[in-house]
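hiii so um. not sure if this is the right channel but i have a protein structure encoded as tokens and i wanna go backwards to a sequence. like what aa goes where. can anyone help
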């Protein structure tokens, strides 16, 4: 057995990991996950916990790290510890260079997601279209860990999608730290390119496999300040793109947005939301907000509450609200430490009010839909046989996570057309 630590924690705290846990056998950073097999290979040399081991350094590839042994000639009773294997490239450029890959103007995307063990049910998956972020929001530490924006080339996306389709996937959730900026780093951002061009390419591939019922594309983590008319048209026009958008807004007050370095404003956000609802009737928009951001005033909080209550398009279909959590080394974390922090009790009160307001919005939306009785295509997640009738649980294109129905739906059909039964 071996202890292998991988991911963001290693990338961020590589110099401290062995101090925290001396028994670690291998460390794998976010740019080096393709070397995980080397890290878990069995070792035959005995180990001991009595001797410390040298922690890894940024930019070093997989290699043995010497132990801090006080004597060069161990006694016959002394057992040397296994060396720690480490692969923690400091950034994507270093990782590419170590693999002797061509480095052009931008580092680009080089990891392959094709050969992976999926933990989701067979019929849906997450398709990563990019990694890293160039936005540098004041509260976020992701760029310091994941690095700059790196888009996965369209041809790589197509190849991966074909493999996943062959494996039975129906719904593809498109993810990245900033999906709206897709293609900008690799020169794929001209007319007909970028996110809109990528969506059109994936839509064409899905329909080529068997028509509009072949699959769904769901866009996640869109950044509001970069959303173009061409992107809106793609969502509105493409039959395989569900009319759903996950777009974190974080706040609506201009002073708070400025402190957050969100590169947008209340006016721009409201204009975008109105345009989305006007050009994509019935679109479901999910978002997230931060409660108790450093320096947030009562008036700014009230502005956010009012915005949630009266947001364009009868409000948000769903909203996640999170208390501000300081990240060391970020501008917001520094401001928090220097006295701009909101008292915890106030943060919790604001959080509760935001949740309650959004809940009222959702209840009103559901009541309106129950009266209108719209129909949705539903992707069936499970079928439970009861005493009298079967029940199915699934997800609509609009993002309703649980859609209980009764009828003739079977797990053999990936989608069925059912009238939504409102609870």
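sure thing!! here u go:
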């Amino acid at each position: 057995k071996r202890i292998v630590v991988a991911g963001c924690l290693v990338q961020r705290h590589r110099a401290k990991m062995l101090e925290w846990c001396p028994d670690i056998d291998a460390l794998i950073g976010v740019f080096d996950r393709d070397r995980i097999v080397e890290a878990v290979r069995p070792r035959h040399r005995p180990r001991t916990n009595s001797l410390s081991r040298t922690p890894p350094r940024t930019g070093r590839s997989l290699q043995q790290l010497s132990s801090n042994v006080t004597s060069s000639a161990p006694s016959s009773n002394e057992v040397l510890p296994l060396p720690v294997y480490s692969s923690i490239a400091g950034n994507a450029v270093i990782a590419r260079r170590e693999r002797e890959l061509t480095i052009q103007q931008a580092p680009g995307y080089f990891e392959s997601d094709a050969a992976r063990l999926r933990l989701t049910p067979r019929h849906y998956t997450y398709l990563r279209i990019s990694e890293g972020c160039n936005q540098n929001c004041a509260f976020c530490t992701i760029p310091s860990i994941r690095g700059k924006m790196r888009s996965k080339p369209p041809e790589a996306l197509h190849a991966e999608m074909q493999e996943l389709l062959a494996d039975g996937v129906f719904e593809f959730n498109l993810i990245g730290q900033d999906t709206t900026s897709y293609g900008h780093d690799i020169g794929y951002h001209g007319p007909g390119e970028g996110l809109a061009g990528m969506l059109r390419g994936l839509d064409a591939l899905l329909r080529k496999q068997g028509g509009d019922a072949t699959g769904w594309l769901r866009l996640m983590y869109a950044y509001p300040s970069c959303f173009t008319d061409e992107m809106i048209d793609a969502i509105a026009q493409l039959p395989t793109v569900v009319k759903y958008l996950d777009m974190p807004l974080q706040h609506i007050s201009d002073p708070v947005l400025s402190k957050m370095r969100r590169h947008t404003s209340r006016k721009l956000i409201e204009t975008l939301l109105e345009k989305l609802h006007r050009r994509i009737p019935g679109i479901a928009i999910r978002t997230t907000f931060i409660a108790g951001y450093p320096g947030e005033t009562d008036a700014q909080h009230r502005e956010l509450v009012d915005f949630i209550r009266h947001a364009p398009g009868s409000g948000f279909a769903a909203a996640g609200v999170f208390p501000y959590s300081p990240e060391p080394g970020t501008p917001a974390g520094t401001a928090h430490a220097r006295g701009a922090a909101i008292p915890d009790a106030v943060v919790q009160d604001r959080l509760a009010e935001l949740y309650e307001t959004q809940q009222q919005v959702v209840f009103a939306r559901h009541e309106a839909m129950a009266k209108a009785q719209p129909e949705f295509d539903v992707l069936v997640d499970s079928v439970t046989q009861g005493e009298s009738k079967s029940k199915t649980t699934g997800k609509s294109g609009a993002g309703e996570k649980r859609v209980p129905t009764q009828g003739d739906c079977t797990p053999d059909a990936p989608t069925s057309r059912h009238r939504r039964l409102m609870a």
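oh and Residues 104 and 304 are 44 Å apart (CA to CA).
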